[in-house]
Design brief:
Distance between the termini: 54 Å
CATH architecture: 3-Layer(aba) Sandwich
Strand content: 5-15%
Number of helices: 6
CATH topology: Oxidized Rhodanese, domain 1
Order of helices and strands: HEHEHEHEHEH
Number of domains: 1
Radius of gyration: 16 Å
CATH superfamily: Rhodanese-like domain
CATH class: Alpha Beta
Largest sheet: 5 strands, parallel
Length: 127
């Protein structure tokens, strides 16, 4: 077999082994997020998209902390309160969730599918 095929196989294996994984109990559907927002008054909603994306539409009450700034702004969040993180499609929020859980945010969860799934479910955003 050609050497390039081995490189492709090795890259695929590394991708699946080291990609950010979200525990099953930490994934919430847009409907579950809507329910949590309605009943949990202490809930922290964190949008990890860029400020430009955030201004284009976000969940009501969400705080914008771009994933690139999360490490330096993590002290703005309360470890003792439930937290839901989201992004555009779920990739950045998966990485943010991993960072939050490592920092002691045991109640942190993420919205599967991001704001695209939220809007796809017919739910509104705030501008």
């Amino acid at each position: 077999m050609d050497a390039w095929i081995w490189w492709v196989v090795a890259a695929a294996v590394l991708f699946f082994v080291f990609r950010p994984s979200v525990p099953a109990d930490a994934k919430l559907s847009p409907g579950e997020v809507k329910e949590a927002v309605a009943k949990e008054k202490a809930l922290q909603l964190v949008d990890v998209r860029t400020s430009g994306e955030f201004s284009g539409g976000h969940l009501a009450g969400a705080k914008n902390i771009p994933v690139s700034d999360l490490g330096s702004r993590i002290n703005e969040l309360d470890k003792e309160k439930p937290l839901i993180v989201y992004c555009r499609s779920g990739a950045r929020s998966s990485a943010a969730l991993k960072q939050l859980r490592s920092a002691g945010f045991a109640q942190a969860k993420h919205m599967n599918g991001g704001i695209m799934a939220w809007q796809g479910a017919g739910l509104s955003v705030t501008r």
